[in-house]
Design goal:
Layout lengths: L4 E6 L4 H11 L10 E6 L5 H13 L5 E7 L2 H4 L5 E4 L15 H18 L5 E4 L4 H10 L9 E3 L2 H15 L6 E2 L2 E3 L7 E3 L4 E2 L2 E2 L6 H13 L1 H9 L5 H16 L7 E6 L11 E9 L2 E4 L7 H21 L7
Helix pairs in contact: 1-9, 4-5, 5-10, 6-7
This protein binds nicotinamide-adenine-dinucleotide and (2S)-2-hydroxybutanedioic acid.
Amino acid sequence: MKSPVRVAVTGAAGQIGYALLFRIAAGDMLGKDQPVILHLLEITPALPALNGVVMELNDCAFPLLAGIVATDDPNVAFKDVDYALLVGARPRGPGMERKDLLEANGAIFAPQGKALNAHARRDVKVLVVGNPANTNALIAQQNAPDLDPRCFTAMVRLDHNRALSQLAEKTGAHVTDIRKMTIWGNHSSTQYPDIHHATVKGTAATSLVDQAWYRDSFIPTVQQRGAAIIKARGASSAASAASAAIDHMRSWALGTEPGDWVSMAIPSDGSYGIAPGVIYGYPVTCKNGKYEIVQGLEINAFSRERMDATDKELREERAGVEHLFARK
Ligand code: NAD
Ligand code: LMR
């Protein structure tokens, strides 16, 4: 058996937390041979609820759960952590865009970035789920000047999974028949779900669906899926978001499948003409705990326009939060 790793989860008493912690403790994220110590962060008023979650975690008697730290202090929560899933933030309600949460949630991610900088392991893998996820990840990263900027990522895996599901349904295939789906850009309604490189059972996806369906149905459905869930459930997605967070971390830690890639929002290095520094959804492969952008993809005019629109939104979001940055 391996020695335990430390996994921090913020917002641990929230609805995503409730769908996430039990799967991490069961080994779904890091493997059935990897014991974990959970570090759970909540705000002070939520500590009694968090205590209930801790009681339930203990009651599961998970073989891989090697310890639990429950706290309202980020300096305790991030001490020596190998992984940090930053979920704790306010969700949006009906009629809101995710960026409407920037002011409220931006204030959470600057102090958490500082605490990660001071206490986390130097190779910590950070996934921001709390919205607006890409720019919150940037805020945390810019408050952690001693950590490698590439430690900070944001979640577009839920969008990736939604795109797989929509394309599978349309083509009468199963999600496992699809390779090389891509979500470019922001986890927002400007995101660009791109099927130009995707295959279904080895056949080019673009040859199986017509352009009108792709443009007028598939793209808006994936872009608006979060809002559709809020409308239907009266609360934002939780189990699917937790599942995508597990997928994101598992791919990063344990690697991607040969011949396939996944979508992760990572610090742009300027690849594909995107503004350097913004946390942008890219197709990536992962190996030995490192991610790498898939290079050399042909980008047509249709894609270019959409990739630039979501880049523009991320640059605008960045301009609105620069006052929260410590890293110069
Ligand atoms: P929730 O309100 O059920 O839970 C959020 C929890 O975070 C609460 O328990 C709250 O007490 C806690 N919290 C607030 N501030 C905190 C802080 N400073 N430190 C620690 N904990 C804090 O919300 P939820 O449904 O679990 O959603 C959480 C976030 O995830 C929201 O911002 C939501 O929009 C976002 N989300 C993102 C995706 C994605 O794909 N990126 C998908 C779904 C939801
Ligand atoms: C989602 O995509 O389901 C989440 O980001 C929640 C939201 O606000 O849409």
